[in-house]
Amino acid sequence: MKKLAGVKGMNDILPDESFEWEWLEEVVRSLMRQYAYRNIRTPILEHTQLFVRGIGEVTDIVEKEMYSFEDRLNGEALTLRPENTASVVRSVIEHSLLHEGGRRLYYMGPMFRHERPQRGRYRQFHQIGAEVLGYSGPEVDAELILLASALWRKLGLHDVRLELNSLGQASERATYRDALIGYLERHRDALDEDACRRLYTNPLRILDSKNSQLAPVLASAPRLFDFLGAASKAHFQALTDILDANGVAYTLNHRLVRGLDYYNLSVFEFVTDRLGAQGTVCAGGRYDDLIAQVGGKSAPAVGWALGVERILSLMKESGRTLDEPLPAAFAIVPDAAAFPVAMKVLQQLRELGLSIQMHAGSASGLGSMKSQFKKADNSGASYALIFGAEELARGSVAIKSLRDGVGQQSTWMLDQLPAWAATLQSQSPSPTNL
Ligand code: ATP
Ligand code: MG
After folding, report:
1. Ligand 1 lined by 278 (C-beta under 6 Å)
2. Looking at the domain assignment, is residue 173 inside a domain?
3. Judgement on whether residues 313 and 333 belong to the same structural domain of the protein
4. CB of 113 closer than 6 angstroms to any ligand 1 atom
């Protein structure tokens, strides 16, 4: 039969890599606890209408990137989530989570977009996101940015820079939109097809065009920042005051408008030069109108999402390598008759926190001691626990060092093993350094 392959642009994450994912997730979890953000898990499928309303009809995502289909059984229009903010907002409204004040939430998980697969761009990719709902002050915008910066520090990433802009409020954007359309109409011959198509539907998106031919025209385009009123400018100033006081560097990028319709006031991206065209590793902003747009009682909100694949590949590019945690011990079992007692001992040691890999046989038996020792070596374990028949008959087990002082062997009574485990654990530092 023909071999079946996975779906294009959707990757398996194999054990040689998945330990890095687990490590990153652990770092994020502990950081989120420090900032008092709580976890939320929403379904991967939502009604298509949620994303159409939440993300906006004239966005890349809704126009061409969504995996949408009709439920064969009841005809409902469903979509694999392309991002998670709309789902979080839906859930917060549905379960009245804002009744008792604001919420600080975070999520991790797969997202789906039908894009052309390339390095740093996949059809199933993973995001970690943080959302703060119910607070309108710039201090929460700042908190989210400080949280992301703290994460880069924990991950050992130094080549990430912050770009900021303010999109102001809808009325300010409307005035700006007219000015921008007027300007671009005057430079129509310099626009490409994409820009012409967006000129009246989503002209702000033209500003972040990746086509370098447009650069000169866009460089002299009117700036949204100049159209902001006093309140919007004050919000931005308060945010940057906090960032300055905390030593967070940023640049004001007038062309940063973000791809989704729902943003207002602060928008930001964390960008690196090390990942080629897919250089945005984390992006977010304020979305005070979204909750009402999705049918909830109007409430302010702000959040960001980072691309896990891009962060991990940036760690690699930056030479930040991780050591996979190895088992402390490998259990050598020369004769199958030893398994009942051996496995009881291993259970006890594991309950004390030790990681132990046990030898297992194949159709041809358990294999020679030599081959078992070879497997013990390959496992990376520091010790071999040898459950030989003679030792077991005396109620003991032999322990051989495979690393430091390799070859040294000692015999331990089974009831003394917890003491051995305790000395082992006091020696080995936590591998994750959280
Ligand atoms: P881009 O401009 O690269 O398409 P975006 O603006 O569509 O990004 P967002 O919707 O803001 O991205 O998603 C937040 C983050 O998720 C991005 O900064 C990126 O790190 C990651 N991301 C987005 N799309 C993909 C994808 N197809 N594959 C891998 N990561 C992605
Ligand atoms: Mg995109």
Report:
1. yes
2. no
3. no
4. yes
The residue whose CA is least distant from atom 28 of ligand 1 is: 121
Pairing assessment for the beta strands 68-70 and 396-401 based on DSSP bridges = unpaired
Bridge partners (DSSP) of residue 39 are: 106
Pocket flag, ligand 1, residue 122 (CB < 6 Å) = yes
- The domain boundary, picked from 317, 340, 375, lies at 317
Counting the structural domains of the chain, the total is 2
83 Cβ inside 6 Å of ligand 1: yes
- The string of pLDDT tens digits covering residues 61-115 is 999 999 999 999 999 999 999 999 999 999 999 999 999 999 999 999 999 999 9
Report d(CA 55, CA 52) in Å as an integer.
6
The rounded distance, in Å, linking the Cα atoms of 201 and 62 is 14
Over residues 378-399, the pLDDT tens digits come to: 999 999 999 999 999 999 999 9
Q: What is the span of the domain harbouring residue 390?
A: 329-427
Give the domain-ending residue among 317, 344, 362. 317
- The answer to whether position 175 is within a domain reads no
Let me know: does 48 contact 66? Beta carbons within 8 Å: yes
**Which of 278, 306, 309, 311 most suits a substitution to test ligand 1, by most atoms within 8 Å of the C-beta?**
278
